[in-house]
Amino acid sequence: LQISGYLNLLANTIDNFTHGLAVAASFLVSRKVGFLTTMAILLHEIPHEVGDFAILLRAGFDRWSAAKMQLSTALGGILGASFAICAQSPKGAGETVAWILPFTAGGFLYIALVNVVPDLLEEKNPWNSLQQILLLCTGITVMVLLSLT
């Protein structure tokens, strides 16, 4: 098996840990914020997990082993959520949320921009670049509108 498969599993576990942190901290803020965060992460995770599964298959894992390994990385999310809940201060959730949500939001923004900006810079067709920028702005607008309701 190629080392890239194991590196992908490690990265996926860390990614799922931060997702668990974000979900638990969001529910500490309110039920609404928790559900919105959970939905955003689920929408992100579906294509992400399919891509990770394909990476594992290319690395030499058979389908059943790849599926089991992908499922095992989900434990990172449970550990992240547990950590966020255990890190809750006796003074209340405010101190926990004060560092967890900015940390995870910054990580998500970094990953999104590291993936999007290089593609925009390499794009030869200005129409495709404009479409990507408009879709990125649409996503930001949806997040703002959901946060206002």
TrEMBL record:
The name this protein goes by in its record: Zinc transporter ZIP13
Gene behind this protein: Slc39a13
Reactions accelerated catalytically: Zn(2+)(in) = Zn(2+)(out)
GO biological process, one term: intracellular zinc ion homeostasis
Bilayer topology: Multi-pass membrane protein
Broad class of where this protein is predominantly found: membrane
Source organism: Caloenas nicobarica (Nicobar pigeon)
Subcellular location field: Membrane
Molecular function as annotated in GO: zinc ion transmembrane transporter activity
Family: Belongs to the ZIP transporter (TC 2.A.5) family.
Record-linked InterPro entries: ZIP
